[in-house]
């Protein structure tokens, strides 16, 4: 099984980052404006990227201000069955975010492209948490 792992450092408290990763407002500013999200274990978050299908992630773990784990139930075929986790730690007012997208069946070109896009996700999360202005899918030109 393959795993994408990314890290970034945000000048924001973990509570701010956690809220951004679990709320409709936060994920709408960070990832896509078309979504249905609730911070509840068992809830299936829905994300629309105008690709003809809805990406659905079931929330399998929530540890407030510490860890979030999603499991993909619907999306691109390569994503179904994979998991995404966000691990948060804070030191001297800097939150470290470790993003892992794991349980990929194989390393493909789509896997490599997703690695790039997760890095862009973390950049958007950083700008949103630090400056209240993320870069959701609908506003990207890259």
From TrEMBL:
Q: Where is the Activator of Hsp90 ATPase homologue 1/2-like C-terminal domain?
A: 11-129
Pfam family name, one: AHSA1
Query: What Gene3D superfamilies has UniProt attached to this entry?
Result: 3.30.530.20
Q: Which family does it belong to?
A: Belongs to the AHA1 family.
Could you tell me what this protein is called?
Answer: SRPBCC domain-containing protein
Q: Which organism is it from?
A: Sphingobacterium olei
């Amino acid at each position: 099984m393959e795993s994408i792992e990314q890290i970034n450092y945000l000048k924001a408290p973990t509570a701010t980052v956690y809220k951004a990763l679990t709320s409709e407002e936060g994920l709408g500013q960070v990832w896509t404006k078309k979504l249905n999200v609730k911070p509840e274990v068992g809830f299936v978050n829905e994300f629309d990227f105008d690709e003809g299908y809805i990406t659905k992630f079931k929330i399998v773990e929530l540890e407030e201000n510490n860890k979030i784990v999603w499991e993909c139930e619907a999306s691109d075929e390569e994503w179904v069955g994979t998991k995404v986790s966000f691990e948060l730690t804070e030191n001297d007012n800097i939150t470290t975010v470790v993003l892992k997208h794991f349980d990929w069946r194989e390393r493909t070109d789509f896997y490599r492209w997703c690695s790039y896009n997760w890095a862009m996700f973390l950049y958007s999360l950083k700008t949103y948490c630090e400056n209240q202005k993320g870069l959701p899918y609908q506003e990207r030109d890259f």
